[in-house]
Amino acid sequence: MNTDDRSSATREAFETFLDRGARGRDWPAWSALFIDDAVYTEHCMGQFHGSAGVAEWIGAAMEPVACMTFSIEWAITEGDLMAFWIWNHLPTPPASTVDEYCFPNLSILSHAGNGQWAAQEDLYEPAWTACVVDWFRAGGSPTMAPDPTLRPIQPSYPPLPPDGPPRDVVSAALASLSPTSSPARLEVIEGGAGVAIFDAPERAYGVTCHVDTDGRIAFSDVVSNPGERANPFG
């Protein structure tokens, strides 16, 4: 398949990924979408291998926040790779005066074909998850009713650019924003939007940018996590 055909297949597989996970929260069914030698890197929690390893981890991780729901702010696709910005929402406890309890993360997926996934990597600033501790302190409980209508009060990003310059211009823009001297480990570029991961000895950096048709960087963002030695994308 050419890149366009592979991108189409990846987008189709991503819809099932969302239906089972972010929308349906059926974690055993969602975990089954990962192939036996898949690698899931959650930089703050570790690496998990294969469908069984992902299932064991996600089941334990979601149990104390069983009412958590999710929303996708944006997603871009290139060939077998999908990058997306996902929000993790918790319902507001009745006695809380806080407007929202949520945090985002950048995720990158590698499509293995046939609707299955070979790798996933999640990057976010660890401090963002402090809202989960605040939620428990405010009376949050896994038995609360989930609210799938929750969305962030303030999105993280402007809308994705409808058009962009040639791919190499976006790639160069991502490289110019790198916090490291290393080349990008991977890139996902669609139109004027691009995502790249750069590795340093102790950190992994997720860089996002929007580039207009004249080649100017209209928006950029960097998130980082403690680094992992293994590369989930091979």
Provide tags for this entry.
alpha+beta; Nuclear Transport Factor 2, Chain: A; 2 domains; 6-stranded mixed sheet; 4-stranded antiparallel sheet; 36% strand; globular
How are the elements arranged and paired?
Blueprint: H1 3-23, H2 27-31, E1 34-42, E2 46-49, H3 50-62, E3 69-78, E4 81-90, E5 101-113, E6 116-123, H4 130-137, H5 167-176, E7 186-190, E8 193-199, E9 203-211, E10 217-226
Parallel strand pairs: 1-6
Antiparallel strand pairs: 1-2, 3-4, 4-5, 5-6, 7-8, 8-9, 9-10
Folded structure, characterized:
The chain has 234 residues and is an alpha+beta fold. The chain folds into 2 domains: 3-137, Nuclear Transport Factor 2, Chain: A (Roll), CATH 3.10.450.50; 167-226. The protein contains 5 helices and 10 strands. β3 (69-78) and β4 form a beta hairpin. It starts with a helix and ends in an 8-residue tail after the last strand.
Q: What is the terminal-to-terminal distance?
A: 20 Å
- Element-by-element helix/strand order: HHEEHEEEEHHEEEE
State the CATH class of the largest domain. Answer: Alpha Beta
Number of strands: 10
Domains (count): 2
Determine the CATH topology of the largest domain.
Nuclear Transport Factor 2, Chain: A
Strand residue percentage: 35-45%
Give the mean pLDDT: 95
* Strand order in the largest sheet: 2-1-6-5-4-3
Largest sheet: 6 strands, mixed
Low-confidence stretches are none
Number of helices in the DSSP assignment: 5
Fraction of helical residues = 10-25%
**From the 3D coordinates, which CATH architecture of the largest domain would you assign?**
Roll
Over the alpha carbons, how many angstroms does the gyration radius reach?
18 Å
Bulk shape = globular
* Class from helix and strand fractions: alpha+beta
